[in-house]
Amino acid sequence: MAVHGWCHPRFSRVREVFRQNFAGDGELGAAFSVFLDDKPVVDLWGGVADRRDERPWERGTPALVYSCTKAVTATAVLLLAERGLLDVTAPVAEVWPEFARAGKERITVEHLLTHQAGLPVVEEPVPVEEFEDQEAVADRLAGQTPLWEPGTAHGYHALTYGFLLGEVIRRVSGKRAGEFVAAEIADPLGLELWLGAPDDVAARAARLSGGLRVGASAPAPEDALGAAMLDGESLTRRALGNPQVTKLPGGANHPVILRAGWPAIGVVATALGLAGFYRHLVAGRILRPETLADAVRARVSGPDRVLLVDSSFGLGYMRPARAFPVPGQGSLTAFGHTGLGGFLGLGDVEHGLGMAYTMNRMTDAIADSPRALRLAEAVYASLDASP
């Protein structure tokens, strides 16, 4: 299988791992991009973007990157805070008064960013008619009672994270999260990254295949997480399954999902665009360095009530843990976010790295991405090679 693109000679092993992902691990279509010290060093792609018609994966092929979105949404919130328009330590109700219902008056924006709010589930089924009405889903959450005392535990807010923080962004800025990201981050930096894909971008997006289909199939119960996904009443299954993407033909490939811009899972991006986001973040062009340094400081670590494995979060960014495995060299310095099925976005200020992996053959794992991890390992190992 032909691998297209370019690698700096120092990173030649990355090209070999990328090729091996196709040869030995069933990769269908994928791209991987890396920036080091603000310069591009890896830009690879290959395979097919749509297995139905063998449409080739091209340099500009975008993909829905699922929860890699959360880091972008968190950055938008932090940008508002940096400008003095939002206090992340203050109650959410200060900017969203209706949120104070049902015992939530003391929940802070930081609780939302760190998955401590106790609102990982939309309790009532969200109808398809509301899939593009983020405000309606946010209002549903505003009426709910937390499932645990906010601030006492953390549990991955797989979908609700975006509706909650998206409403905070809207209340403060007057723009939906996707509009704010476009105006303040993606467009000024020329990034191929959209929180809500325009029709032309959606039309050329990679078609996702396989992976976890909540409500239709689930991984074997070989561990606690797999067992939870087989249990329709488990907190894990409920957190990942409403709004239920599989209500639409093609699931996440449906145009409604691609254009809806859910701020938890809705970014459509090329690998170069997502890696570029981390490049500019690490370089201090999106947030001030001191803002980012504080944001990546772990606020919560340990057992995750939803993922049922250890997770660690700063202010919206994942930190190294079972839910965000990184190479040893980055175990103290890497931050970013994974995406359901295997996507990865990663930054590392100390090592000057920004990288992203996009693909379309999703795994059944929620917290694992062996193909992405092998690529990240090759990148870190290449840092020891001669420049």
Layout of secondary structure:
Elements: E1 3-7, H1 12-24, E2 29-36, E3 39-50, E4 55-56, E5 63-64, H2 69-82, H3 109-113, H4 134-142, H5 160-173, H6 177-189, E6 193-195, H7 199-203, E7 209-210, H8 224-230, H9 235-240, H10 255-260, E8 267-269, H11 271-282, H12 289-295, E9 300-303, E10 310-313, E11 335-339, E12 343-348, E13 353-359, E14 361-362, H13 370-382
Q: Can you give the helix content as a percent range? A: 25-40%
Largest sheet: 7 strands, antiparallel
Per the CATH scheme, the topology name is Beta-lactamase
What is the CATH homologous superfamily assignment?
A: DD-peptidase/beta-lactamase superfamily
Shape: globular
Q: In DSSP terms, counting alpha (H) and pi (I) runs of 4 or more, how many helices?
A: 13
In the CATH classification, which architecture applies? 3-Layer(aba) Sandwich
Task: Detail the poorly predicted runs.
Answer: 213-222
> Which structural category fits the helices and strands?
alpha+beta
| Count of the domains | 1
Radius of gyration (Å)? 19 Å
List SSEs in N-to-C order.
Answer: EHEEEEHHHHHEHEHHHEHHEEEEEEH
What fraction strand? Answer: 15-25%
Tally the beta strands.
Answer: 14
What's the average pLDDT?
94
CATH class designation: Alpha Beta
Distance between the termini: 28 Å
